[in-house]
Amino acid sequence: MSDVYIVGVDMIKFGRFPEKTVPQLGAKAALMALDDAGLKIQDMQALYCGNLGQANAMVGQRILQEIGQTGISVVNCANACATGATAFREAWMSIKAGVFDCVLAVGVEQMGRGLLGGGGGGSGISKEGLLGSGTMPAVFAEAGMEHARNHGTTFEQFAKVSVKNHHHSTMNPKAMYQIETPLETVMNSEMISYPNTKLMCSVNVDGSAAAVLVSEKKAKELGMGRAVKVLASVLTSDPYTDRDLTMPDVNAVTRLAAKQAYEMAGVGPEDINLVELHDCFATAEILHYENLGLCKDGEAGRMIDDGDVALGGRIPVNVSGGLLSKGHPLGATGIANIYEVSTHLRGEADKRQVEGAKIGMTHVIGLGSACAIHILEKVA
Amino acid sequence: MSDVYIVGVDMIKFGRFPEKTVPQLGAKAALMALDDAGLKIQDMQALYCGNLGQANAMVGQRILQEIGQTGISVVNCANACATGATAFREAWMSIKAGVFDCVLAVGVEQMGRGLLGGGGGGSGISKEGLLGSGTMPAVFAEAGMEHARNHGTTFEQFAKVSVKNHHHSTMNPKAMYQIETPLETVMNSEMISYPNTKLMCSVNVDGSAAAVLVSEKKAKELGMGRAVKVLASVLTSDPYTDRDLTMPDVNAVTRLAAKQAYEMAGVGPEDINLVELHDCFATAEILHYENLGLCKDGEAGRMIDDGDVALGGRIPVNVSGGLLSKGHPLGATGIANIYEVSTHLRGEADKRQVEGAKIGMTHVIGLGSACAIHILEKVA
User: Fold this and answer.
1) Domains of chain A: which residue ranges?
2) A123 and B21 in contact by Cβ < 8 A?
3) What value, to the nearest 5°, has the Cα angle with vertex A113 and ends A111 and A115?
């Protein structure tokens, strides 16, 4: 099986773009990633598209209407908040399979249209679906409180996650927000579901991100200069049978994925230099320090207190600003994370650069449930 | 790369099941396919699910809630009427990639909920999407009339497709209908969009189908007795740039896919013993005889007149009854076609058996556009 390399990756600055269509937003990131690779749509053999709001409306094919209809294989994927990562993983799979050498993965979401945003066009989430806007704050509040009960984690520690990620985003020109949020501001913002205040909830934005994946043969042809190697790609679902999906176990699905990812990559948590993880709520980030093995169980509160997970710390987490400040356009998030980690591995992250980064990890969770983890490695 | 084998495949009898949920319908076919393989959900390493009506609602994961949550990789795919075939193809890809040895693919649709049915729950098609119920009859009527202008194809010849497929379905206990429709009845039924009358349009039903795909290593372990080999799996999109997708070129996308499929399989049209093709309208079937290379351009009318494409003819087409009489539950159709062809290759098609069938082809088109073709071969 061929190894798989990322040779182009980019994202648009996250924001609100009600004047654009979903395919237009996706096309923009696609062209940026192609430019980054020095390739054209005519060089691509397949497109994998991740979008949730118009999951049944052939968004991948409509992106090709914007940038060139070349007759290639197009697959549209949806997997809740793991949608973009799933599209990336299927692109990876198609190269691993030896079916293609050069594949484009695009993740895109327009949150104002349907979904959580509720307005405009778009198909909206099924009533029978699992993404009711009421359930997510409850799930992650409850999961945080369980951590507090077991390990004495404090409201202040949860809030510090938001302070850190907002600080990181002041150095990321592609983040939705570039503002500092002092601890008091975070703790005193509107309470959504204890212990998460409004500033501890992910930001509802439009966005898109894209990546060009190639086989080893093609990567060598192109020159490996800025290539990033995909060491692991895994996807798990809920491993239990005794619960209702309205309260998924966000820990179990991540622990299973982390175990598989480290095994596939042949590395351990101690080898990881930066992590973009699914901070859909501040409580979630705390849980995932432990779920991903970045520290031992019960040590997550100390990780945030000691600055281990801040830029300059032992293992910086969400240096992009994370979902809490960069923003969380559902279908785009998985590939935006891959953009962030790749940018550090290439040494191109400017002010927020994690110095000497050689291996990075991305993690997303889709309720319902899906957890995707990718481990990426610097090549040159 | 490992060859890929189908070791279990089944479908429910198509019909109307408003009392069931989409996951329940999908779970039923999944369990039937597992039974057919002599395997359990615990033996599966991944699930690929195709569903259009609730494409953003984690149908794959909800199927696992019905039959066992084992933590496996779940991907939800949507590709208009090629949705089920796309899920099957991604399952095939994951085995080709050497990532998995044993994968379940499920296609399911509940047409009464959302989509063309319009009632009940479900998310419905996006207003910005491409599947407006008004456009499909127009597209396939126009494409048929173009064939009539170029080749002198008659209303009667188009109508004979429906007579043939309804006759075939009288021998298929899993088809929605088992009734003969004489030529006069077909020609005198309500005119939908000339030259397609109501009996020349596909049937709006609920349905599900599933397949268990395995690697060569796993197939040998299980014994190859009833295994079917996947010789080719291809997926194309619209190869042009100068048109609007509201009138897709149903011919070009199929011709491109057929060329790729024959190349991948290393066989030609003369080697194919039966075809399940996308007769969403009677006109479409006529076009695809030529698009798939079953005859020369301009000979399709003669093919239906001479009985070449009927059971007992040179190359039987839609022996299942096709979309015109078996029914067309969008997300299920691609895998239901694979069930039909596999059943003949296994020699288990009873009254409608295509004698001595060794190689068969399935074809679906999703407007928007996507064309998936699979070529399957008898093993033992």
Assistant:
1) 4-126+205-228, 135-200+230-375
2) no
3) 65
